[in-house]
Amino acid sequence: MFLPTFANKAYLSFLLFLLLFFVAMDMLLYLRVQNYDIRPRANNDTRASPYHSPVPCDLNPICTVTVKAMMLDHPNHYILSPLASLIDYLLGISRYWTWLTPSTISVSHVIIAIIGARCIARSSLFSRQLGVMLFQVRGWMDNLDGHVARTRLNIQGERSDVGSIGFFVDGICDGLGCIALMVAVFILLRRNANDGANYERLPVRVMSTSHNTVSSNSCRKSPLYDTLMVGLHFSLISFAWNRYISLYQDLLETEDQNVPLISREDIYDRQTVVFRSSAFCGITLVWKMFNFHAMMDYLLLAIFLPGNLRYRIQEYVRLTWWQLPAVLLLLVFISELHYINAYAYVKMLSIN
């Protein structure tokens, strides 16, 4: 009895530590953004405070601030991405391992995802937790392929090379990894539905009316339907997230805006104003918590923790039916409205 209680306390303490760490890093990132210029200025220009990183910039997640970095989920931004940079820094993968291409790393993490999904689909807690850890390794490799590609192309900071072959290969590999996880979730849901003796039964909610009594269990969906709903939500939020990364990158991180009657310095100043604005920081923070990678991490956390697995997964599925799509639609609406106004401000256009 002591071991499960101790384990639960250990899990809770670790999650609380991660939460505090992410909040602290978000605060540091916000302070960094307020002193960050879209384009670096001369050293003798006092309009922007110089930033002295205690470690090499590749290892510091708040050194080079980009649109994608601000919209990247917390584990990837603050843990997996710096860890990928550290391994590359120590082993010299980008410089010396010329035979190892970013696309090869992308394909490799699909294999890791398939092995992880196979472990998650098993009934034992240890196998599921091992599978979740393998998916974190897959996430680290996903960061590594991007870091290697950007280093070899001399691109600083987190940026999406939209339209390149590597961008499409990475997207396809991410999709295959997600499909592997969805198959594992389907197997878990089907096993739980067919073998309820091994799991605690969900509480039955009864709705009484003046004419009849309806059990919520009668409205329970099939495991295939539940899995497809989660997969659909992942697809929609991934499409929206990548879309706004691309839009904001083009608006705020592109030098040649081709705007008549506006100098390049004026364009940089306007881009910086938008980048530092509280509205943009707020929107990117919400995308940080509700993007594709974050939602996958929430599902993996539900699988990793001990206890009533059936209940946690079905509660997650219920969220994808209404609450999470509602959040996504609201976030898309606010992001679109903000982008239109930011575009008009940067381009000096009037909105009637």
Automatic annotation (TrEMBL):
Record keyword Cell division present: no
Keyword Transmembrane: yes
Domain of life per record: Eukaryota
InterPro entries found in the cross-reference section: CDP-OH_P_trans, CDP-OH_PTrfase_TM_dom
Gene3D superfamilies reported for this sequence: 1.20.120.1760
A Pfam family that the UniProt record links to this protein: CDP-OH_P_transf
Key words, A-Z: Membrane, Transmembrane, Transmembrane helix
The name this protein goes by in its record: Ceramide phosphoethanolamine synthase
Transmembrane segments annotated in the record for this chain: 12-31, 78-97, 167-189, 326-346
